[in-house]
Write a structure and sequence with these properties.
This protein has about 325 residues and is an alpha/beta fold. The chain is built from eleven helices and ten strands. The two termini are about 30 Å apart.
Length: about 325
């Protein structure tokens, strides 16, 4: 079974061809960093226009690399939300056109569901497990009981972790996106020289909050500018900030496992590419006797392979989910639970 996956939820135009749910034949990702970097963040209108210009070329490249024809595709899986509405509509309407023209079944996939099952591109994790989706737009904890069965345990009440990385990166004068730059600086810094606040909220809460941490970094940078006796470098500040984010993420993740009495962990999403986070998760899991799984970085960032994978599993379990093309619409705030 050949699945064509399409992902245009934000600023990556991506297409992939997946065979039988586990054999990835192609995975093409065309990012828009060059477009948005001069603005310090994503401009939704420009993102949508770029998808229009690139989507057909990316699909053609994915099919060519996979060495198949569009007529060979058995299922089209496309992101229908959440995300930027203009970006979502480009991918969704492209998929509808292909499905109609090829007379091929099509299925809409929740972007977060794609992240949840990105790990299945590399290994099968036994259900149930605790999943942390951590990216530029999301910081969510789920209990995953089976395909299509999810329980929300906690989420950010303000900034997502990836968003806070980008904003702090901007404060430090780093190019967009700020996350990779902060990680690079943090490797050369000493995070023990200053301790930024950790927001744990009310007792027992598995929700997250990073806005206060972001404000604390800004205040500290202003103090450093006014007081020459503060000799912490950008590297030290990056390391201290990164530790503050990772400490909370890992603590909440382990608490969720203990609350739900589960020992399997999956961490995914763009921030899961961060080497320090990956290392901290594995270390904490080992101490507790848990099994932690994190996809390779290429499958952490937004990609179409994860959408094809999630679409494949949804369709093979219930073919009635194949879309009524007229009834399928993009939803910017599509909920997973």
């Amino acid at each position: 079974m050949l699945v064509l996956g399409l992902e245009t939820s934000c600023d990556e135009t991506a297409a992939a061809v997946l065979k039988d749910g586990g054999n990835l034949l192609s995975n093409v990702i065309n990012d828009q960093i060059g477009i948005h970097s001069k603005y310090g963040g994503i401009v939704p209108e420009l993102a949508g226009r770029s998808h229009i210009e690139r989507v057909h070329r990316v699909i053609e490249e994915a099919v060519q690399i996979a060495d198949v024809q569009l007529s060979d595709i058995d299922l089209i899986a496309v992101t229908m939300g959440p995300g930027l509405i203009g970006s979502l509509l480009v991918g969704l309407n492209t998929a509808k056109g292909l499905a109609y023209g090829l007379n091929t079944p099509m299925i809409g996939v929740n972007h977060l569901e794609g992240h949840l099952f990105a790990i299945f591109l590399q290994k099968k994790v036994e259900f149930p497990f605790i999943a942390l989706i951590v990216s530029g737009g999301h910081t969510d904890l789920y209990r995953v009981t089976d395909f299509g069965h999810y329980k929300l345990l906690g989420r950010t009440r303000d900034d997502a972790a990836g968003e806070s990385f980008d904003k702090v990166g901007k404060m430090l004068g780093l190019p967009y996106p700020g996350g990779p730059g902060i990680e690079k600086l943090a490797r050369q810094g000493n995070g023990k020289l200053h301790k930024f606040p950790r927001a744990y909220l009310e007792k027992g809460s598995l929700d997250f909050s990073f806005s206060g941490l972001k404000t604390s970094v800004r205040t500290f940078l202003q103090r450093r500018e006014q007081n020459t006796s503060i000799n912490l470098t950008d590297e030290d500040i990056s390391a201290a900030f990164q530790e503050a984010v990772i400490d909370v993420l890992v603590d909440k993740l382990i608490s969720a496992c203990k609350n739900e009495q589960l020992t399997r962990i999956v961490v995914t999403g763009g921030v899961a590419s961060n080497g320090a986070l990956r290392e901290a998760v594995q270390k904490a899991a080992q101490v507790c006797g848990f099994e932690a799984s994190v996809p390779d970085p290429i499958f952490c960032t937004d990609n179409a392979a994860m959408i094809a994978c999630a679409g494949y599993h949804k369709y093979t379990r219930d073919q009635s989910l194949s879309a009524n093309l007229r009834g399928l619409d993009a939803k910017a705030n599509l909920a997973l639970e």
